[in-house]
Structures are given as C-alpha cells and as structure tokens.
Amino acid sequence: MIPKIAELDVMSPVYRQGHTNLFAGLCHAEFTRADTSFATFLGVHDGLFTGSIEALASEEQKAAWLPDIYSMKKIGAFGLTEPLGGSDVAGGTRTTARRDGDNWILNGEKRWIGNATFSDWVVIYARDVADNQVKGFLVDTKTKGYSATKIENKIALRTVQNADIVLDNVVVSDDFHLKGANSFKDTNKVLKVTRLSVAWQAVGQQMAAFDVARKYAVERQQFGKPLASFQLIQEQLVQILGNTVSSLGMMVRLAQLEDLGKAKDEQSALAKAFTTARMRESVAMGRSILGGNGIVTDYGMAKIFADAEAIYSYEGTYEINTLVTGRAITGVAAFV
Ligand SMILES: Cc1cc2nc3c(=O)[nH]c(=O)nc-3n(C[C@H](O)[C@H](O)[C@H](O)COP(=O)(O)OP(=O)(O)OC[C@H]3O[C@@H](n4cnc5c(N)ncnc54)[C@H](O)[C@@H]3O)c2cc1C
After folding, report:
1. Are 76 and 123 in contact (CB under 8 A)?
2. The model's pTM
3. 76-182: CATH topology
4. I need a surface site. Which of 59, 129, 240, 278 has the fewest CB within 10 A?
5. Which CATH number applies to 185-330?
6. Mean pLDDT of 65-80
7. Closest Cα to residue 244, out of 270, 212, 205, 217?
8. What separation in Å is there between the alpha carbon of 313 and the centre of ligand 1?
9. What is the mean pLDDT of residues 67-78?
10. Which of 313, 315, 335 has most ligand 1 atoms within 8 Å of its beta carbon, as the pocket-test mutant?
11. Bridge pairing between strands 76-79 and 121-128
C-alpha cells in the first residue's frame, strides 16, 4: 500500500505543507475513523520518525534525508521504549551510545517499535556513556548488529508491525547523530506534538464507534422495533456523541494554541489523558449496543474496541499523562 499512500501526499502537513495544526489534527482523526492501524502507521512514519528529524536534525541532515522520507521512498521508525524502560523511559533508557573516533557504537534493546520490521531507517534514542544524556541517531536497518523481530499475537492494531529490536555493537557515523538530539528534553519536543496527534486519534476512534453503533441501532430489530427506538439505547448513543464532541472541542482549542505557539507540555498530557478516557467509555458503550455481535470481528466494532486499548496505553499511558498534568497543577511530582 505504501506507494498508494505516498500518492496521497499527506506527509508533514504542518512543517512541509504549511497547513494549520487544526487541519492536520482533523485529518488524523479522520484517518483513525477509517482505520486505526493506518493512522498509527502514518503516525509513526510521519509523526514520531519524521517529526524527530524535522525537530532535531541539522539543516544539512534534513536536506539530505527529508526528500526520500516525504516521498516515502524511505520508511522510518522511532525507537525509544525498551523492555525494561516503558513509562520511566526518560530516566530508564539503558541502550548506550559510545563515541569511537568519528563513529558511535550502539548497544541495547528496544521494544514495541512500530514499522521497524520493514522500515529502512529507525531513529534510536540511546544514553551517551560519556555525559549520561539521551541522544538520537538515524540507524540504517541494514547495519551489521541490528535486528528486529515482529511482536506476534497482538489483539490491537493487528496490521501495525511492532518489533523487538536488538542493537549489538551497531556502528553509526557521527554524521547520523541528530545534531539537536542531545538530552531527553530534546526527545520531549517530539513527544509533545505526537501526544497531541494520539489525542486526535482518540477523537477519530470515538467517531468510528458512533458511526457503527448508530447504524446498528437503527437497523437491528428487537421486540418488533429498531434498537434505536429504546430510550436506554438512545441515552448511550448520546453519551458517545457527548464524549466525542467534548474531546473534539478540547482538541480544536489545543490546535489553535499550537498554531499560536502557545500549547504547553501539560496541556498535551491533559488532552491525551482526557480524550483517551472518554474514548474508552465510548467504545465500551458502542460494543455493548451491538450485543454479542460487538465481540465478533465481522461488524467493525470489535476492532474499534480493541484498537482503543493501544491508543490508551501508547505515547504515555493514561496514568503517566495524568501525573504530568498533576505535577503541573500542584507543583508536586507524584511519579515515585
Ligand atoms: C501498539 C503499541 C505501539 C507502540 N509503538 C511504539 C513506538 O513506535 N516506539 C516506541 O518507542 N514505543 C512504542 N510503544 C511503547 C509505548 O509507548 C509504551 O508501551 C508505553 O509508554 C507504556 O510502557 P510499558 O508498556 O512498558 O508499560 P509500563 O511502563 O510497564 O506500565 C504498566 C502500567 O503501570 C502504570 N504505571 C507505570 N508507572 C506508573 C507510575 N509512576 N504511577 C502510576 N502508574 C504507573 C502504567 O500507566 C501502566 O498502566 C508502543 C506501544 C504499543 C502498545
């Protein structure tokens, strides 16, 4: 599908194409409404991977790499999470980078890395043993010592390929050290933006749940009448709609703040936590409206329900984004 996706020319709507963050967010919600796995594939290649290069590479590096990335001749992945470092990845990154003349030597493991089974490149975040800071490197996946193994048996995002990565003395030229990626604060610049696009996914996921549940309720007959004619069913449809519209309203305002350059980290975190919590309620009600048919894959809702669980947990879990927001409003960190 990748050549066909490339023809759509949807890459980098804000940085390259000059669209507003509102336009980009609404597109991402609509991609998710159509298929969450598609939106996640694009979110990894365009958001996390390309976003890392746009935000953290030097002008020279961008000129050399971005054309092939935008045309999707090269597909990318974003390697931050580790088997032992999930929520505490900021302090818990164990993958190491050691400077060796004009090269860096990378060693360690990454987990959950989307697209990494087939991508050409992956941005690896690794801790420099010299100054203990997390730095970013563009790694060619054909490099000796790099291997990626597909994580099997996922119940969510079934067409997204996530990988366990092993880096065994992988040699990377200093030309491929992202010049602006020199501490976790730099990595956070990427996450602030991509966290918002995941919150937009939560909007799209609820739109999809509403679409399927409403259609089913109007068509399915019980007690000689459509489900939609029962007050209790209408109440659930209205709750899904209310959750969706409140999530959308929050995201529209945040996109306006982003366009003004005023969105803060904690606002991204609040949006991710709030919209995904509403999403979880909405997809559960949607699934219930389909009764037994809500748990079989033929009706669409089971996929929407399961994919929502991935959105709830990636890009900082509900709890971690709540703690980021809690720290901002109280001045007290409650992570440990
Ligand atoms: C489908 C999918 C795709 C992904 N894609 C990528 C990718 O492309 N690149 C990448 O780098 N990563 C990716 N991730 C990783 C993702 O960001 C992590 O899964 C996420 O950050 C959570 O880490 P963890 O799974 O290790 O859970 P853990 O950190 O082990 O957390 C387990 C539970 O404990 C809770 N918890 C942890 N610490 C605290 C605390 N201090 N207080 C309260 N509760 C806490 C969490 O909220 C969670 O409920 C992906 C994950 C999934 C599932």
Report:
1. yes
2. 0.97
3. Butyryl-CoA Dehydrogenase, subunit A; domain 2 (2.40.110)
4. 59
5. 1.20.140.10
6. 98
7. 205
8. 6
9. 97
10. 313
11. parallel
